[in-house]
Amino acid sequence: MARRGDEGCCAVLHLNEDNARFGLLATLILLYLLCGAAVFSAIEHPTELRAKKLWTQHLHNFTETHGISAEDLKAFLRTYEEANVYGVRVDALRPRWDFPGAFYFVGTVVSTIGFGMTTPATIGGKVFLIFYGLIGCAATILFFNLFLERIITMLAYIMRWFHERQLRRTGVLMPSDHRRGSGTSAGESDSLEGWKPSVYYVMLILGVAALLIACCASAMYTVMEEWGYFDSFYFCFVAFSTIGFGDLVSGQKEYYVNQGAYRFGNCLFILMGVCCIYSLFNVISIIIKQTLNWILKKLDCRCCRHCRRKHLRHHRNAVNPAQIKSRRNDVSVDTVCDSETDGRRMSGEMISVKDFIASNKVSLAIMQKQLYETANGGPRPSYARHNGFSGGIGALAIMNNRLAETSVDR
């Protein structure tokens, strides 16, 4: 009975932490958007005004020089804009809807890049795109998640190997200590078995890999597309991050030297870049979550323990009221909900078996369990004990599970 009351306390506190984290993240994203809008408006808006003024002047000079009315010229330009939708350009470009062009298009669809330089113009094409993109995007996201799982596993193996070498070099671990069954002290065993890869090292490795891919791809685009190197690097980020503005698009000229090799290299670089940036984004999201936890912890330090107890008493009728009431004098919030995971949450280590559960709860399943017990006056049949990574879906859950397997179950 006391255990159920403790779980109820943790459920309420974790739910409040999740709500606070969600609200803080939403506020920070809104501030981030406002700051970004202010910066881009200050940088780009003057150039937009100058370009609009210059275009108006050119339009006026052209109509005066050739004796064409402004209305007729605008009608002609609108006709060109309509033809532009179907792939007609002033400069000679490769066909948009031959098989290689269509293959490039579907690649941008399923990867969610969506450059926008080619779009279906017929009703049949638009209808087919809806169903094709629905399945294709889902399958590609699954591929990215599986790639993330494998890259994190590989990095964990490599980093563990370096960690073992460092322990042997310092004399903490003997060459045979890593084998099961060898005679090792508890401290030596814990120094290896308790090790977890650092999220910052993983971020650094993925960042360097993405940077190398982008630099190599930029060198290729500078030569083949005749772009500036910075423009090529900008295109790599826009493409690899699947933002896909479409202002710069590779592989659109009618002819290239070594065209087949270039198109293969273009697809390969984009595939590798998207996978690396996708993995990097997911690692950065963990660091952002750690930062949110740190901010909330700092804010929470200003609240007295009395306020937290008062908050629990206020919610005792919602979750396990009887148990909380019976133990409110001898159960401390810090004792119930603070564990070794809370102290290590900001350590920069990348997810042990217990760590990440502290920053991911409370799940809907726990709340449903508590409400069920309250309504029926007794506990539900017990579930299998979670290993700390059983909750969650998507890329973060895959990453956490793989890190737990590769860094702990050895």
From TrEMBL:
Keyword Oxidoreductase applies: no
Alphabetically ordered keywords of this record: Cell membrane, Ion channel, Ion transport, Membrane, Metal-binding, Potassium, Potassium channel, Potassium transport, Transmembrane, Transmembrane helix, Transport, Voltage-gated channel
Family: Belongs to the two pore domain potassium channel (TC 1.A.1.8) family.
Catalytic activity entry: K(+)(in) = K(+)(out)
Residue intervals passing through the bilayer: 22-43, 102-123, 129-159, 199-221, 227-249, 261-281
Membrane-protein topology: Multi-pass membrane protein
Pfam families membership: Ion_trans_2
Record Gene3D superfamilies: 1.10.287.70
Domain of life per record: Eukaryota
Localization annotation: Cell membrane
Name of this protein: KCNKD protein
Positions in coiled-coil regions: none
Stretches assigned to the Potassium channel domain: 94-151, 210-288
Provenance organism: Polyodon spathula
